[in-house]
What does this fold into?
Amino acid sequence: ANVGTGTAAVAGLMALARIAPPGGILEPHPSTRSVDAAAFAGLLWGIAVAIPAARVLLPSRSIVLDPLAVDYATTTAGIGSLLVLIAAAWRLRSVRRLELGVGDRASGALALGLTAFAVGVPAAGLDVAPPDRVLPVAVIAASMSSAWTATTREPTTVSIALRGILAVMILGAPVALFSGVLAREAPAHAGTVTLAGCCLAIIVGLIARAVARPLGPEQSRWLDAIDSASRGALQPEPDAAIRAALMELSGTTSLPGARPELWRSNPEEVLSVDLAGYLHTAQSKAPERLYQLALNEPERTLRAEALRHVQVRKPEVRPLLAWFDHRRAFSATIVLDEDGPIGFILLPRGARTAPMTLEEARAVRVLADRISALLAVSSALARSRSRELAAIAHADEVDDERERLEHIIHGEAGRHTARAEMLARGVRVALYSPAARQTVEHIEKLGRVNAPATLEVPHGVDAKGWAAVLHLASPRKGGPFVVVDGASSIEHSLARWDDADISPLLLADGGTLLLLDVAALPLEVQESIARTLAKKAALPPRSSVQRQQLIATTREPVDGLVQAGRLSKSLRPWLGDSVATLPTLADRAEDIRALVLDGLARTGVRVRRGEPLGIDAKALKLLTEHTWPGNEAELEGLLARVAGVANGRVVTAGDLSAIGFRPIVEPVSGDTLAPKRRRTRRSRAPRR
It folds into this structure.
């Protein structure tokens, strides 16, 4: 009998020492793997076995042993084994209580060992049965219970069963002991005592569930709250289900400000519920290491207490522990879908001091699995909403930017138009002659056609005003009007035309590029202009901004310049076939009066402190009879000179004589030998 009891005691202690770790960041202490308790129990039962064995095997005359020695050895070994079992279970619970499942097993073994001790020792002391019979039975029951708690497949079974066993033992053991003692002391009333004991046992069975409820972890408040949250997550609408689950999880703590949270990774937000039950969403990012560690933990649950336990051996977890402490969090359970982690459930610490049990961890993991689909849908809706809000914000920014750019473009268009109008004013101020009117009509028609044009310019005629008229008649009138003087040495630099910032071809985009005296440009520059225009034409338009319109001025016909080698053959097609010949001042006899009056008024304002100048009839007659071989350039120079010598407010013929002006008139037809005389110049037919 002692051999069997000792074997059971050693086996139970060995089972406690060989509980496998659940994995994760917690590693069992080497002392928990020690078999010193089993060795000590084996020593006690070895003595208890050796004494009766010596009495049986050795001759009676060689050794004298009192039969009570066997009883004493058995009783001592039984009490000692129970104490060793309780001490081993307590050490296991103290060292490995943070390991999910191991703490439940150690607590079960400790509770069952204490129960066996609390029942066996009093029963032996009250002489309900012989001590050498009661204590071995208590040792066998405690050892088998320890072996069961250490080797059962589900550690949660130990917690569930333990609460019922303890409730029954707490209430049933005193009833059984009291009934046994009373029946032994009053054998005449043994039947009545037995009947009363049975009634009390029935009552114990009825109230065992109610008594066992407070024995659960944290008075079962967490399990009840998690179970209610799992039922609340069954609602079909994602946000309503999440709100209901978080509201039920609030029952895990009663401290103000400590609320459970649901974190999601995409978008990076945290969901919580206030006391009124309203769902709140805030932008926040969780530590990346949290997902890495929690996925390797049992039930995908990372606990702050586990991080605190290993922070000395693993300093890399200290930032994560600080994050847990900052948020006053107790545990984080990962929510998974088919693509990986999508968030986690963060439970508050509140006033809890007991470690999390495996039963609670599994309940939270089941809740996480249940809301994974809800969180995925909610995250998709949140991402869609975020994209919508971002698109709306971007659209608002684009509208603001569009309005700003429109304002700039309208302002630029106004400035470009004003500059072109200023240049065209010199032409439009005097359009009385048929030659000028017909030329303007022809130029405006070329502008509406929106094609390249060439202007043949006589000596002294300012082509910028006529080109400005063409520009204002085209669809590009709001664009820039860029003027390039081919005779200027600055424009002869090939690097200027190839520069991406200051090239006239780029500056004229959306407007008109006027090439004055295009034949004066070097041939290499002309070739570069042709290449750039061809390259732009081959590319598809990148925006609604039109390509520049090209206007070139020449002194001679374009084809003659090409034959003479002064105009590049590759540039010739880009000048177009539309040609307009500008009229000379001699062809605009009807416009001279208006030109003279306008020029004197402007010149007088500049040189006479804001007072315009006029001209008398005699002086005007002299100017209208002049043939003006230098055209507008000669007229402008003459007016500037006469304004400087005029003494009054009106230019006279004497003022013209003072500057040496002598009109050149055309001779009368058929009388070339007669002396020249002044006459009114006859009208000529208009020229195109």
User: Anything to note?
Assistant: The first helix runs from residue 2 to 17. The chain has 23 helices and 13 strands. The two ends are 139 Å apart (CA to CA).
